[in-house]
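Lab notebook, bench 4. Still working through the backlog of constructs that have no structural model yet. Next entry is a single chain of 232 residues. Request: give me the structure tokens for it.
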Amino acid sequence: MLNTITTARRARGLLTAFTATAATHLGSLLTDSKVIEQVTKPALMPLLAGHVRSAASAGRIAGATSTATERPALRLLTPALLTSAAGDALLQVDDERAFLAGMGSFAAAHICYVTMFAKQGALTDRRRTALVAAGYALAWAVMIHQLWPGLGELKGPVAGYSLLLATTAVTSAGLGRRGGLGGALFLLSDTLIATRLAGWKQLPGHEFWIMSTYLLAQYLLATAALNAAAGE
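Model written out:
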């Protein structure tokens, strides 16, 4: 019982730290506080990873139900978040090679997500999966068509990465509304980045919207995976 309480408290503390750091980071984007922005961004996903690990541990100690398939699948959640953290750090470097490396880190995160969601049964409803996939395929094709002229040498990497991102959105939808919204927001966040790469006119507070949708997406995806593992 004591272990359950201690682990649950740790999970809540890490979630509070993640929320506070996220709020500080988003505030730094609105106030153009570069130092705070640079310091807080790499800390976000490790804090979220710590939270979900502690929450998963608390659930196991408390006897939360999970199938033999779901337990190994959940082990992919921490790598998904930590490779995202690497991507966050790399994208802060103003260099094309660092940008491509960051995109590669996020691609690894999406592979972890897609594999994990599939193992958790996200693709069992084939009719729903086909309908969702058709919708995202259309959205992807329209997006790439519109962005293509301005992407220059990044056309191939952006097209390949965005297709993988759409696959995450499709599979996450199989975990319910929480997962589906997380996948959609992740796609929206990275689409906003792509419009910047393509030279489109930026929204007021463009970086704020990129990061706010990204952070909410990661939280929703992570907690959807936790709920699936707990049988909720």
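Notes after review: Residues 2-31 form the longest helix (30 residues). The radius of gyration is 18 Å. Flag for follow-up if needed.
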